[in-house]
Amino acid sequence: MNRLIKIVSLSVVLLMCAAPALAQEAGGGAAGANAFSIFLGGAFGAGLVIIGAGMGIGKIGSCAVESMARQPEVAGNIQTAMIISAALIEGVTFFALIVCIVKT
Questions:
Q1: Residues of 33-67 as b/e, b for ≥16 C-beta within 10 angstroms?
Q2: Taking CA 91 as the corner, what is the angle to CA 59 and CA 79, rounded to the nearest 5 degrees?
Q3: How confident is the model at residue 48 (pLDDT cuts 50, 70, 90)?
Q4: Radius of gyration of the chain (CA)
Q5: How many helices (H) and strands (E) does the chain have?
Q6: 42 and 104 Cβ atoms separated by less than 8 Å
Q7: C-alpha separations of 48 from 16, 31, 52, 93 in Å
Q8: Which tens digit of pLDDT belongs to each residue from 65-95?
Q9: Rounded-to-integer distance, Cα 104 and Cα 94, Å
């Protein structure tokens, strides 16, 4: 239940932050302090992406080493699955970083 409350509260905060970003004037371009907030949003998004990727790859590595210690005979299969999963996480991370950079 505690996890659900955290997820819901994080979703509400993200939705509240997205509304001002999407409410642009008809003129289009960002000038002055508004441009700074757009760059800050891109940097904040890139930081969240990196933190999430680090946590994901760290969790994969710790669980893989633990399972290799428990069953050494399947260490090769576990290592292959770990490398593929880490590569997929890094691919998604690079895509998200490009989206943060292009948005700014």
A1: eeeeeeeebbeebbeebeeebeebbeebeeebeeb
A2: 45
A3: confident
A4: 19
A5: 3, 0
A6: yes
A7: 17, 25, 6, 10
A8: 999 999 999 999 999 999 999 999 999 899 8
A9: 16
| Dist CA 12 CA 31 (whole Å) | 28
Residue 68: burial class (beta carbons within 10 Å; 0-12, 13-18, 19+): middle
Whether residue 5 lies inside any domain: the answer is no
How many structural domains does the chain have?
1
Instruction: Classify residue 49: in a domain, yes or no.
Output: no
Residue 98 lies in a domain: yes
pTM for this prediction: 0.58
For residue range 50-72, list pLDDT tens digits in order.
Answer: 898 999 999 999 999 999 999 99
